[in-house]
Design goal:
Layout (H helix, E strand, L loop, with lengths): L24 H14 L13 H9 L18 H12 L5 E8 L2 E6 L14 H17 L15 H12 L2 E4 L2 H15 L5 E4 L8 H12 L8 E4 L9 H22 L5 H5 E3 L17 H15 L4
Parallel strand pairs: 1-3, 3-4, 4-5, 5-6
Antiparallel strand pairs: 1-2
């Protein structure tokens, strides 16, 4: 038989305990009973008992009844305040930049950074491609962040749609090329095209493929946009910088739009007045000799030639 020693216990003296130590015994019992009542756990539950502060916070955070929760009446706001909300939700200070995109097998346009003509110059050797990549990188670093828009606000009801739709379409639109313009116009339809005011095209289609063909197609779709104030083509459109050749190129690709715009505004040459060309259009790409024409003087001559082609004079 194995004999083990007794376990040693620490000595405790009760001599110092006074009667006052038990005076609040009844209060302690009540406190314990209150803690038990606050605990809504059942026997065998692994959830810890809820503390007093948590229980009080839970009671305060009880949601209101469905009858008490009322929807926000947006249309009760003053018209000026509603216009401010439309402007914040539907417009971008720097304009809407669009590039072509294939989405779910459908050609459309989407918001993204637009780089311009020089950033796509990759057909003249290593150094030009390197320069194009550098231009894209610098543009991305300096570009402002795209503003998040909420066009779904217009789907709330007919009144909100009628009040806010012009805020969406009256701002500046910047297109990567005429392919993007074509796809954008096809998406918004004839109903919304007259709402457009200012357009900018960063690249003019060239070559023998679809890009050049889209110049004519995009401006043919643009014919219902009879309220336009400006169409800026910030790109070279011809390999010569002569104003007469530039006017002929614009008329060849955009005569459907120019004629429809002139008829709608009571002046056959009105379309020539809203066409603007960037400085790149007045720099020749002729391989034998470089031609440079003053942009202001050249633009005036282009408009004069366009009005003659439209038989406005």
């Amino acid at each position: 038989m194995i004999v083990t020693g007794k376990r040693k216990r620490t000595g405790v003296s009760y001599a110092e305990i006074q009667n006052d130590d038990f005076d609040d015994g009844e209060e302690a019992v009540n406190q314990a009973q209150s803690d038990i009542d606050d605990d809504d756990t059942t026997f065998g539950s692994k959830r810890k008992p809820m503390k007093k502060k948590q229980a009080r916070r839970a009671k305060l955070s009880v949601p209101r009844k469905a009858a008490e929760a009322k929807p926000f009446r947006f249309l009760d706001l003053p018209a000026e305040l509603r216009d401010m909300i439309y402007e914040l939700a539907l417009t971008d200070t720097y304009g809407i930049s669009l590039v072509p995109k294939l989405k779910a097998g459908r050609r459309t346009a989407t918001r993204s950074m637009v780089f311009g003509e020089d950033a796509y110059d990759n057909s003249y050797g290593y150094y030009r491609r390197r320069r194009a990549r550098r231009l894209k990188r610098d543009a991305l670093e300096e570009a402002p962040k795209l503003t998040d828009l909420s066009p779904t606000l217009l789907l709330a009801n007919k009144q909100i749609y009628s009040e806010g739709i012009n805020f969406l379409y009256n701002q500046d639109f910047i297109f990567d090329d005429t392919v993007t313009l074509f796809q954008f116009l096809a998406v918004i339809g004839v109903r919304n095209q007259p709402r457009l005011l200012n357009l900018e095209i960063k690249r003019w289609g060239s070559g023998r493929g679809k890009d050049k063909a889209m110049n004519h197609g995009a401006f043919a779709l643009l014919a219902p946009a009879i309220n336009l104030q400006s169409v800026l083509i910030d790109s070279s459109i011809h390999w010569r910088a002569q104003p007469k050749k530039l006017a002929a190129q614009i008329y060849r690709d955009a005569h459907h739009f120019l004629e429809a715009y002139g008829i709608a505004n009571g002046d056959r040459g009105a379309g020539a007045d809203i066409i603007e060309l960037g400085e790149a259009a007045f720099k020749s790409h002729y391989y034998r000799a470089e031609e440079t024409v003053d942009a202001n003087e050249g633009m005036s001559q282009v408009r004069d030639h366009l009005r003659k082609l439209l038989r406005a004079n």
